[in-house]
Design brief:
Radius of gyration: 22 Å
Order of helices and strands: HHEHEHEEHEEHEEHEHEHEHHHHHH
Helix content: 40-55%
Strand order of the largest sheet: 4-5-7-9-10-11
Number of strands: 11
Shape: globular
Distance between the termini: 27 Å
């Protein structure tokens, strides 16, 4: 991990400038009637889980460009995850994918993570790839397959993932399925959904009492004609049929172009089935880019719905938050730090929306002034607030600069074996 003294010195060198910026923003916000201390408290309480697969360089089907000092195993990924948490103060959990990062000794890995101040978020299953030694192929689906033996194999895999998760201390499993068809007539649209639901019933029955099952939807890839769980409606149908501990997970890249994702979020909140998020960004499809790098206003509007629901439902509204990204060009740690910073800024902007004023103008059908409330909050430069919230959690005022000043990547490159580890592509 980075020497805490490096972070302290980096912050000290920038403290005077930060305090000047923060003081000016506080005056501005107080004139607008905001409780700045309350906003800082909420920002400091925000956290998001890291995906184990994002800590190594990703790739495409055309190539991969590994960088120096990449993690070669799950232990080294924990080291890198701990550095992201050091810098941001907001990533205390890591989400494992089974079998990509399946631990030999889950109890030992849990102990190792605790030494870094980390715990484990939802575990992720994989029935979209055939693994070495696997008896039945998932070429034509897994939980939806026409062959009961294939479905049984996929169910057993999910049961195994739950057992590993229990040893890690997780309390949720995320299910993303590539099941579907590429051509009309390839499979029955109704029966494939019915078989998926029946299989998920078996998985749901194995959930520990305090666990959640999170169902992720995706419109295409690799099933290009009819994905079984293609949209939030399909996901919601499954969750409602399974029971109260099943809910929907929204991956921001899992929507067709121009989809109103914030409205999807609002509908799932209304249904009481918004279980969580995979944060990323996209330009064309499931690009898994840095969150906020393409559509920062949409990210703000999503957080606006979350803040609004939290105001209405209080602590009963607790969707889980995780990053899901995979980079072929950026340093993985720097990419994650950028995403966390962008999420914190979007959240801070959403906290500054004048909700009584917004509701008033919405009721009066004053289109201009209603939109103005959102624009005014979004256009506020909240970086000093985000930096102060990080500083109060012993994080870095400028995490990217501090990471480079610390020379962590160069140090890792000198002690780790050459970058031959090939992480699978992101979910």
């Amino acid at each position: 991990m980075i020497d805490p003294e490096v972070i302290r010195k980096s912050n000290q060198a920038r403290l005077e400038e930060h305090q000047s910026d923060l003081s000016g923003l506080k005056r501005q916000l107080r004139r607008a009637g905001h409780n700045v201390d309350a906003v800082l408290d909420e920002l400091a309480a925000f956290d998001v889980a890291l995906p184990s697969w994002a800590l190594g360089t990703g790739g495409t089907r055309f190539g991969r460009f590994p960088g120096p000092g990449e993690p070669a195993n799950i232990g080294e990924k924990l080291e890198d995850a701990a550095v992201v948490h050091q810098l941001t103060g907001s990533t205390p959990r890591i989400s494992l994918h089974i079998p990509w990062d399946e631990p030999d000794d889950p109890a030992q890995l849990r102990h190792q993570a605790a030494e870094f101040g980390l715990s484990f978020d939802a575990v992720n299953s994989n029935t979209f790839q055939d693994q070495p030694g696997q008896q039945h192929s998932y070429k034509f689906g897994s939980l939806c397959h026409s062959d009961a033996q294939v479905r049984r194999q996929a169910i057993r895999h999910h049961e195994h993932v739950i057992r590993v998760g229990q040893e890690l201390g997780s309390t949720a499993i995320t299910v993303w399925l590539a099941d579907g068809s590429n051509f009309p007539g390839q499979s029955s649209l109704r029966k494939s959904f019915d078989r998926t639901l029946a299989s998920l019933h078996d998985v749901y029955a194995q959930l520990p009492a305090d666990w959640q099952l999170l169902i992720e939807h995706k419109p295409f890839e690799p099933a290009f004609y009819a994905t079984v769980v293609q949209d939030w409606g399909s996901s919601l149908m499954l969750a409602q049929a399974l029971g109260p501990r099943a809910s929907c997970l929204v991956d921001l890249g899992h929507h067709l172009p121009n989809t109103n994702v914030e409205q999807v979020v609002a509908r799932l909140i209304t249904a009481g089935r918004l279980g969580g998020f995979h944060f990323n960004d996209s330009s064309y499809g499931d690009d898994d880019l840095t969150a906020g790098s393409i559509r920062p206003y949409q990210l703000f509007l999503i957080f606006n719905e979350l803040v609004d629901a939290r105001r209405e439902f209080g602590t009963r509204f607790r969707p889980v938050c995780m990053i899901d990204q995979s980079h072929n060009l950026k340093d993985p740690i720097e990419a994650l730090v950028m995403t966390v910073d962008n999420l914190q800024q979007a959240y801070a902007n959403a906290l500054l929306v004048d909700r009584p004023a917004l509701e008033h103008y919405q009721t009066d059908n004053d289109v201009i002034m209603a939109e103005h409330q959102l624009q005014r909050a979004f256009q506020t430069d909240v970086r000093p607030l985000v930096r102060e919230a990080r500083r109060r959690k012993s994080g870095a005022l400028h995490p990217l600069a501090t990471f480079r000043e610390a020379g962590y990547r160069q140090s890792a490159a000198s002690t780790r074996r050459s970058a031959s580890y090939l992480p699978p592509q992101s979910l």
